[in-house]
């Protein structure tokens, strides 16, 4: 089944499904959850979701950060669809979207276990590892070039 990535509006049923996926993959295993304030603060973010047919199987959030920079956050892919390049397609869609919004750089906090995934896509580590949401993370970034294919 072909994969489609599309932008999702905040506070819609698809957004709620995205939050449920992010909660299941990124928060619940750590004994954490989102606060109402955290979700409300996402109103100005760009929400992208990957769909296999009607099923939402992946998500990523782009948060405006500084001039011409977005923070890439909350990348999650359903366990049933891992290993099928869903993360890569979400990342490419996020870069394309950020470029379209005038960004020239993406910054992210990668779990150390995901560092190699981002490195394969041109992201570089900035600084030392640190703990965030109970796990080791590294800050990574990529300069977006207009020649990068999305």
From TrEMBL:
Residues of the N-acetyltransferase domain: 3-145
Leader peptide range in chain numbering: none
A Pfam match: Acetyltransf_1
Membrane-crossing residue ranges in chain numbering: none
PROSITE patterns: GNAT
Gene3D superfamilies listed in its UniProt record: 3.40.630.30
GO molecular function annotation: acyltransferase activity, transferring groups other than amino-acyl groups
UniProt keyword terms in alphabetical order: Acyltransferase, Transferase
The protein, known as: Acetyltransferase GNAT family protein
Species lineage: Bacteria, Pseudomonadati, Pseudomonadota, Alphaproteobacteria, Caulobacterales
């Amino acid at each position: 089944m072909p994969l489609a990535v599309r932008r999702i509006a905040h506070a819609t049923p698809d957004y709620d499904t995205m939050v449920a996926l992010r909660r299941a993959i990124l928060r619940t295993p750590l004994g954490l959850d989102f606060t109402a304030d955290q979700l409300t603060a996402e109103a100005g973010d760009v929400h992208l979701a990957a769909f296999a047919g009607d099923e939402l199987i992946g998500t990523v959030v782009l948060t405006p950060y500084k001039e011409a920079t977005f923070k890439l956050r909350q990348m999650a892919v359903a366990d049933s669809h891992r290993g099928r390049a869903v993360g890569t397609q979400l990342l490419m869609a996020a870069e394309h979207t950020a470029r379209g919004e005038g960004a020239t750089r993406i910054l992210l906090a990668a779990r150390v276990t995901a560092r190699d995934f981002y490195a394969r896509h041109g992201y570089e580590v900035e600084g030392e590892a640190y703990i965030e949401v109970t796990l080791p993370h590294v800050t990574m970034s990529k300069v977006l070039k207009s020649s990068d294919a999305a």
